[in-house]
Design a protein that fits this description.
The chain is an alpha/beta fold. Helices cover 32% and strands 25% of the residues. The longest helix is centred in the first third of the chain and has 23 residues. It is globular.
Amino acid sequence: MNFDHDMIVLGGGSAGYAAARTARDAGADVAIVDPGPLGGLCILRGCMPSKAILRSSDILALMRRAGEFGLHTGDVGADLGAIIDRKDRLIAEFAEYRIEQLREFKLYEEYGCFLSPHEIDVGGQTLSARTFVIATGSVVSHVPIPGLDDVGYITSDEALELRHAPASMLVLGAGAVACELAQFYQRIGVDVTMIQRSHHILSGVDEDLARPVEARFREEGLKLFTGTHLHRFEQQNRLKVAHFTHEGEEKTAAAEVIFQALGRRPNSTGLALAKAQVNVDHHRVCVDTDMRTNQSHIFAVGDVNNVHEIVHIAVQQAEVAGYNATHPDAPQRHVDERLTMEVTFTDPQVSTVGLTENSCQANDVPYLVASYRFDDHGKSICLGETHGLVKLLCTPQTGEILGAGVCGPEAAELIHELGAIMYFRGTVDDLAKIPHYHPTLSEILTYPAEDLAERVSG
């Protein structure tokens, strides 16, 4: 069969571009299908715009603490329109660069859907390819809570575009996106209430790493309800009212705006994957460790396979898929799940790499654990950043580091030292012996390492 392209990539975000680039570098003729707007979730509505606006609220929060450091300031406040203007300028630059990269390929700016395992329809045109990579990302989940659709809500897409701050906001959910944007809006003057089903925020991390963030939220005035069950919503004059159960009691909370942050789902609807005979489970495109679907020539990477909703892992998956698709006779590559890393950019930040205590317990993995708090660490005390802790998990016999977590100042940066040591299968003894400059934040990592090194039995 003669094909129009060696590979067609559906989706031009971070994962799609990485797969296309990898395959092109291997000599393949690659086309990308993306209806736009071009750039992908991370650049347009995710990682980059959220971090741009969080920088503004972080500075504002620090300015309000000036007296703590012997400094004097006048009244400080936020201009949300100006914050969004700055974000838009930065995102336009990021997107322009990505679009230039995409245009290095044959780019079809249309929706694509499968007609058969080797053919897709692109704006009425039939295209064929030897291999395909599905990288269509995710969309906001619709949650059927009585009355929610009737009263209306915003999602993270709109939360990143508001130019006038509401007086009050209800945040539904407490994942990474919910927590980051809830703290942003609280800090710029919005009265924020967060309602979370699990018993602590950031339910994917160990409880001891989440609790310091909850403490900071409450210090800043954010009202937080965990362990809840949402029942219904109603409109009362200009306010949207949530009815929910908390600690066995019926409660209500009202606000001008509801921010629905209850998650995202894989964006597979509309791809006609049944015609490609690709297995899908609740929108998730099923893949193996090679990133292949049940059709050996069709791969799926990034949010659409729902393995991890993390950009750098999506890129790793895409590079694996791009290589495997173009090297079918070579040993196939896999993504190293051992080094999975996650970061939430709240204040304090939360980061993890590898296994957590929860995952060790759930899978009967033997481990030793030790932690050390930032409020007992010299550099963090000097900085006035004393919320949180660092923790290490290791094997009882050899001391090899299994996982780590940091909740505290610069957690997003500190976790990378631990990831690097784990990459080389280093031990807590190695970490304890590596010289660390004093006083630095990173030297706190050596304290639990020293503790564990004394307890390892090997």
